[in-house]
Amino acid sequence: MTDAEQRTPTPIDAIAEAWVDTELELFPEYHVYLGRPGREGEYADYSPAGVERAAAEVQNALAQIRVAEPVDDIDRVTKMDLTRELELSLEKHAAGFDQRDLNVIASPAQGLRDIFDLVPTASEEDWANIATRLHNLPAAMNGYIETLRSGIQGGNVPAIRQITEVIAQAKKQVADTGFFFQLTAEPKAGEADLPESLRRDLESGARESADAYATLASFLGDELAQHAPAKDAVGREIYSLASRDFLGATVDLDETYEWGIEELARMVAEQESIAREIKPGASVQEAIAFLDSDPSRKLHGTDALQKWMQATSDRAIEELGRTHFDIPAEVRKLECMIAPTQEGGIYYTNPTDDFSRPGQMWWSVPEGITEFDTWRELTTVYHEGVPGHHLQIGQAVYNKAQLNTWRRNAGTSGHAEGWALYAERLMEQLGYLDDPADRLGMLDGQRMRAARVVLDIGVHLGKRLPDGSGTWTGEYAFDFLAKNVNMNASFVRFEVNRYLGWPGQAPSYKIGQRIWEQLRDEYARREGAGFNIKAFHKKALDIGGVGLDTLRSALLD
Questions:
Q1: Domain shared by 476 and 368, yes or no
Q2: Tally of structural domains, the chain
């Protein structure tokens, strides 16, 4: 943007910027995500005292934003969404979310390690900061354990399934082949070896971090597990809060469950139709077997996967940047990466505020998986890259002249993942999935997301099964997902464990897509003959990553 487009900061911008500064103070790891210098190697205080301090700061920021007066539409959106986020944070605190914050994918049990994936490693100073972080990890882990322990007395403990799975994850970090020992085995500062003293410091830090994970495993197995419920369901109260958090919107969960059943049936019918295009008379399974036997659609090894991801992403950015989107130069760089972990999952990480670290697409390939089918994965690259997450989030980061720091980095899963699924369908409409095999791959993912709506709400709210034969249980969920995805058993196991421990997150993709499509259709109805979908996309993305209720208000009110 030009200087002429620079917006004069307002008092509400100042409150939002101050909240970012507060978050940086409370959670030093946030410096890494934003790419800001300072507090290198430090962790947040995960203890009960740290949790209470964070809640007090939320309350203070909320008091300020509530009385602030907007001066324009950007201010109105900022006030609405920051108020929503802070109020919900206090509701979750009151419900004891921190005391039960343990799951297989997105809890401090993973986050204390995951931050190392994003820290700089180019210089000797970077490696010294890594050594500091390794030494600081045990204290952070001890605070986290203390908070989990505080939930025992009130019966606020995660389910035994999550505890068992995280114990297994923790033990991987303790082994000599664990992440910390691999990280510090042969670190380089450019081409020069690190000083011997720093190398020894890294080695001792690796051992301390591994020992911290051993402590976590012992606590989980010897103490927390004794109090953990066998039931996976979290119940309506916790689930409703989690759903609002991930969507940034309040939805009728019972109506959404019924819609999910209908949407799943629609996806199945669409898949069956395309299967017959691929091979006349074939079932979905027969069409999949036919495609899986096609060597021209197969990649061998993670190196080949990474190169294919990068080439596919680069081509989409170049072509869509000429025809359908105005993509700034900074946003045109997206790095496709194989994650250092083997836990499963594909995810996107934001560019830093100054784009010194570009947006990155990460593929955490499970152990033993060496072959990849391009027909299954093409739409995933569009989902994570352009026009999906990278375009949406990268555009918000780029939009410094209009959006304050909080607005550029805020957002919800429903907004981001809903847009990414919306983008998948958009790529079909633009002709990028004309090959029936690629469309079948897209539908495979869309069917899985619809199944997750049914499974997630069904399990955690104890709903009746779709066929009316009984009530949802965690065990039934494994069979249900296996029937609705064409993935191996290890994928199904990881995914269901994720849903059972991270309530409300998985449905936010498909529910978010539904809300995005509803907003587009309502916007088009109001615009009438003057509706321009490219203009709609620009207006919607220029708002930044907000809760979906805020997005609805900003677009339609």
A1: yes
A2: 2
The token pair at 397 is 């980061």
Digit-coded pLDDT (tens) for 53-90? 999 999 999 999 999 999 999 999 999 999 999 999 99
- Check whether residue 259 and residue 134 sit in a common domain: no
> Which residues have a Cβ under 8 Å from the Cβ of 412 and sit 6 or more positions away?
245, 246, 247, 248, 508, 512, 545, 546, 547, 548
pLDDT tens digits, one per residue of 81-127: 999 999 999 999 999 999 999 999 999 999 999 999 889 998 999 99
- In terms of domains, do 36 and 8 share one? yes
The dihedral sign for the CA sequence 532, 535, 537, 540: negative
274-328 pLDDT, tens per residue? 999 999 999 999 999 999 999 999 999 999 999 999 999 999 999 988 878 888 8
124 burial (CB, 10 Å; 0-12 / 13-18 / 19+) is middle
Same domain (yes/no): 87, 205:
yes
Range of the domain at 39: 3-232
Report the Cα 60 to chain-centroid distance in Å: 28
Alpha carbons 543 and 77: distance in angstroms, whole number: 8
- What is the spatial distance between Cα 420 and Cα 438, in angstroms, rounded to a whole number? 17
Query: What's the Cα-to-Cα distance from 184 to each of 119, 171, 302, rounded to whole Å?
Result: 14, 18, 22
- CA–CA separation, 143 and 137 (whole Å): 10
Q: Is residue 375 part of a domain?
A: yes
